[in-house]
Amino acid sequence: MSKVKTAIVVGGGIAGPVTAMALRRAGITATVHEAYPGSTDGIGGTLALAPNGVAALRHVGADEAVAAIATPIHQTVMLVWTRRIEMPGLTDAPPLRVVHRAALHRILHDRAVADGVPFAYGKRLVGARETADGVTASFADGSTAHADVLIGADGVHSTVRRLIDPAAPGPRYTGMLGFEALARHEVDVEPGTMTFAFGRNAYYLFWREPGGGTRWGANLPRDRPMSFTEAREVPREQWLRTLRTAYGDDEPGRDLADTSDVESVRSVGALHIMPPVPHWWRGRMVLVGDSAHAPSNSSGQGASLAIESAVQVARCLRDLPDVPSAFAAFERLRRARVERIAARAARINNAKAPGPVARTLMPIMMPLLVRTAMKPEKTLGPEQRYVIDWDAAAR
């Protein structure tokens, strides 16, 4: 049984509140420290939750509330220019669920508050000092906080990662900017169908919105990355013109861009992935979620893996006799899984921005690839059927 009783959680996005709730269930008091001056529920676009992510939310009592506001996706289709290819899926698996990050964050935040988790805002971490009996975090406003352990759930630009290892790699730009919009155009597909479309100039995806219209996301190739703040400073009218130019030769990309209201256009800035991080923990500090592992959005697993890790770190701190043993067990349970999923997503990501030759061959090669190489039980089964056994002792 661990002697850990208190924790500082840095980051109040998705992984932070789940970590704090899971820690409370493990008998550990946790406070979430968020750099923003208030809740971050207005940031980001739509994200996917795989069945394994929803299953992990069950351990903090948030699965039903999240499923109630999410759109279930039962079928996936690939569209290569004008050629439609149905993708094989898992038999009898729960659906993928798409949910706006703001709505997901609101549910997790409110659930954590109801569970008694304190949130401290305007707390930008600048340093941490470890002692024999704990760790003291220092924040930009001059305040400090002390606890037995410090858990970094502070995203791809993690400060905690640099404190653990100053030589740690930073996020890697994928070469694409992310966009989202809601179009009035109604696509001719069954509800609950997500289409991954390879246009002549750029990749996009879409599905029917339950309230009407079509929700769609775009990945536009761009040499130079743009931060979320930089992307928001560009007028939405300008981004919409860019989208209409990029997808003007595609069907239904052209109709989606032409019928999207400017108010619905959102840019999330540069899309990043995390290369393998050599050190997930040091002393009394550890990383969870995107700070340690952020696969490409092509994986459909980023949020789900972050939620899984949040639950697993609490389980390890509950069951192992000391902090180093708990963090070592946590990394042992997580690293191979997340890096395997990240590697699969990286291969998919390369297809989103193909060169001229690849674009020419894609309509021929993709159907063949689907018929010969797509084996859902082998590739997706271990990812989506994964369930954490909370009651079992972590080892």
In percent, how helical is the residue content?
25-40%
| Rg over CA atoms | 21 Å
CATH level 1 class label of the largest domain = Alpha Beta
Provide the residue-averaged pLDDT. Answer: 92
Query: How would you classify the helix and strand content by structural class?
Result: alpha/beta
Corresponding CATH superfamily of the largest domain: FAD/NAD(P)-binding domain
Q: What is the CATH architecture assignment of the largest domain?
A: 3-Layer(bba) Sandwich
Low-pLDDT runs: none
Shape: globular
The biggest sheet, with number of strands, parallel, antiparallel or mixed sense and barrel status, is: 7 strands, mixed
Q: Please state roughly what percent of the residues sit in beta strands, choosing from under 5%, 5-15%, 15-25%, 25-35%, 35-45% or over 45%.
A: 25-35%
Span of the ends, CA to CA:
12 Å
